[in-house]
Predict the structure of Probable branched-chain-amino-acid aminotransferase.
Amino acid sequence: RTVYVNGDYLPDHEAKVSIFDRGFLMADAVYEVTSVLDGKLIDFDGHAVRLKRSLDELDMAEPCSKEELLEIHRELVRRNGIEEGLVYLQVTRGSDGDRDFVFPAADTPPTLVLFTQSKPGLADNPAARKGAKIISIDDIRWGRRDIKTVQLLYPSMGKMMAKAAGADDAWMIEDGHVTEGTSNNAYFVKNGTIVTRPLSKDILHGITRKAVLRLAEEAQMQVEERLFTIDEAKAADEAFTTSASAFVMPVVEIDGVALGEGVPGPVATRLREIYIEESRKAAI
Ligand code: PMP
């Protein structure tokens, strides 16, 4: 596999980053994941805009222009022959060759790393036909979840807790309300109305969330952005999650309680179809 590191395209085993890199030592890094369908990028613009916002919020320098980023994404997709899959991008604050809590000088070059993951079956996904089983866990993450940092230890532990419970993923709860999934935004549907938590510092501003809510409104579906409890979700007709890597994923069970018939619901199924169809059309 060919990867990208700070200006170079290299075989993955030759790619190297300093042990003093703050991404490694302090999780001082942000990332993006952009999906690829038909060899083209889905919503590159949305991801580039969010990346800029994450960097700005952390006073981190932009590693290169948006045009250069697009070029690197396309070059990696081309070199690795990706038809369906993902492009992972990470920017770290770099390093001045030592470990210190204080940020290095502002002109310290950031580290920019990108690689691809081939995922045949991303669109025609058997897991989406089955639907996901969810457990609920406490949300003990930091207070700036709107910044897409690489602090993924707790979400990673959440997936392990789900696995141990025989489920697929976890939704997190703070002050009695669902925040989001470990790597996705969370929704339920009751009497035809789609409910999801409003944007704030408490959740990641999903690129897929934005696209799906727009498509839902265009399809005359009712959308309510408000806080909700896990009990409301358990009593719902259906539920789903959204993310760049899984698109719209139906949820069929929460904490052992089957939703509706216990199979993917019509709203989630329809939104998945529309989202994939529209994304293919708009891909670049
Ligand atoms: N919330 C969290 C915590 C996530 O990690 C992700 C995916 N990175 C999302 C939501 C979904 O965001 P997007 O649609 O931009 O992939």
